[in-house]
Design a protein that fits this description.
The protein is α+β, with helices and mostly antiparallel strands and about 375 residues long. It folds into three domains: about 20-90, ATP-grasp fold, A domain (Dna Ligase, domain 1, 2-Layer Sandwich), CATH 3.30.1490.20; about 100-225, D-amino Acid Aminotransferase, Chain A, domain 1 (2-Layer Sandwich), CATH 3.30.470; about 230-380, Succinyl-CoA synthetase domains (Rossmann fold, 3-Layer(aba) Sandwich), CATH 3.40.50.261. About 40% of the residues lie in helices and about 25% in strands. The protein has helices spanning about 5-15, 30-40, 65-75, 125-130, 150-160, 165-180, 220-225, 230-240, 260-270, 285-300, 315-330, 345-355, 365-380, and strands at about 20-25, 40-45, 60, 80, 85, 90, 100-105, 110-120, 135-140, 185-195, 200-205, 205-210, 245, 250-255, 275-280, 305-310, 335-345, 360-365. It is elongated. The protein binds guanosine-5'-diphosphate and manganese (II) ion. Manganese (II) ion (MN) binds near residues 191 and 205.
């Protein structure tokens, strides 16, 4: 689960990581009230779970109430990379002498934690990694040994942070590591981590991803879950017990098995289409599951065609064919459906469907043919 910046900062604060005083606002009036409390100048920050808000006009400084009203009014409702801003974080503006980057994340192949620290923060770390990889000091951390102050001091030296920032940054990194581990994060990123002209080091941004596998340890995460804006399609799929992930394309996908579902997305992409979703119906390709899958896909107004890709193994294709027909008798689907049925009892399965084929219920012999057909229908 990804947190909003303001939630990430609240999370940081629990572990003693310094952040600026501020508050959330859903309206211009609330923004003014927060600013009156923390004092001008303030920063007005769009709360959306996507990076690069600054560049997109979602982070603005306001010296007084007039400026605040202007920026808050403009940012509320702003669309940042498809995320509409409903909430602002207003905080006391900081003077910035230097911007750094710091993060902890999992290094899965090495079964370690990975710390990244750079004196070149404030810009996207991917850009730094590309253009100047030596500017990022990587630290591999053994989870059993953790990160102590001595190691953090050596790390800030290696990253060549300014002298004035090193001691505070080292202490902050130890706390950030504690937040990341004890707080069960998959990612804890601060960009920028700043040094102020008067010599203070603190977190100006917060990007936190919580590890859902640890949610049993964290009843307090409920408050974060409450503000999660869930995709309505994913919500519906979850209620129906389906393994569904919403995407942006127009070809709805139903496949059995996660591997085949992923290959299906690839093939649709390869022939110039784009998938509306990932959906693995597993071994349970019966009428109930098929009807539920079709209903969820059909609820997506973007879907122009549906590609059902089944490779029968333990799941027999004749059962799938019956399931499709029964599902179609229960739910009304207007988008054309292209089926590719192969594997166990494929011949029997195709025979069952033969009498029901039409302009909107089509079979194709191979996965590639079916993908081409579904993509062509979506574009028609
Ligand atoms: P992001 O663009 O989504 O990563 O949002 P950030 O929170 O990182 O803000 C983007 C940029 O706005 C930062 O890199 C800073 O340069 C600037 N910024 C944010 N807060 C302040 C502040 O308090 N004072 C000043 N002067 N600049 C700020
Ligand atoms: Mn940032």
């Amino acid at each position: 689960m990804d947190l909003f910046e303001y939630q990430g900062k609240q999370y940081f604060a629990r572990y003693g990581i310094p952040v600026s005083p501020g508050g959330v606002a859903d309206t211009v009036e609330q923004a003014v009230a927060v600013a009156d409390e923390v004092g001008y100048p303030v920063v007005v920050k769009a709360q959306v779970k996507v990076g690069g808000r600054g560049k997109a006009g979602g982070v603005k400084l306001a010296a007084d109430e007039d400026e605040l009203r202007l920026h808050a009014g403009n940012i509320l409702g702003l669309d940042i990379k498809g995320h509409v801003v409903h909430r602002l974080w207003i905080e006391r503006s900081s003077d910035i002498a230097r911007e750094y980057y710091a993060s902890f994340t999992l290094d899965r192949p090495n079964k370690k934690h990975l710390g990244m620290l750079s004196a070149q923060g404030g810009v996207e770390i991917e850009v730094v990694a590309e253009e100047n990889p030596d500017a990022i000091a990587m630290l591999s951390i053994d989870p059993l040994r953790g990160l102590d102050l001595a190691a953090a001091r050596a790390w800030v030296d290696e990253a060549t942070l300014d002298e004035a920032a090193r001691e505070q940054a080292a202490a902050l990194l130890v706390r950030l590591y504690e937040c990341y581990t004890k707080g069960d994060c998959d990612l804890a990123e601060v960009n920028p981590l700043i040094l102020t002209p008067d010599g203070r080091v603190h977190a100006l941004d917060a990007k936190v991803t919580l590890d859902e596998n640890a949610s049993f340890r964290h009843p307090e995460w409920e408050e974060f879950r409450a503000t999660e804006t869930e995709d309505p399609r994913e919500k519906m799929a979850k209620e129906k017990g389906l393994n569904y992930i919403g995407l942006d394309g127009d070809v709805g996908i139903i496949a059995n098995g996660a591997g085949l579902a992923m290959s299906t997305l690839d093939v649709v992409n390869q022939v110039g289409g784009s998938a509306a979703n990932f959906l693995d119906i597993g071994g349970g390709a019966n009428a109930d599951v098929m009807a539920a899958a079709l209903e969820v896909i059909h609820s997506d107004p973007k879907v122009k065609s549906i590609f059902v890709n089944i490779f029968g193994g333990i799941t027999r294709v004749d059962e799938v064919a019956k399931g499709v027909l029964e599902a179609l008798s229960r739910v009304t689907i207007t988008a054309p459906i292209v089926l590719r049925l192969d594997g166990t009892n494929a011949t029997q399965g195709r025979a069952i469907l033969a009498a029901h084929l039409s302009d909107t219920l089509i079979t194709e012999p191979t996965m590639l043919d079916a993908a081409r057909r579904a993509v062509a229908l979506a574009k028609a």
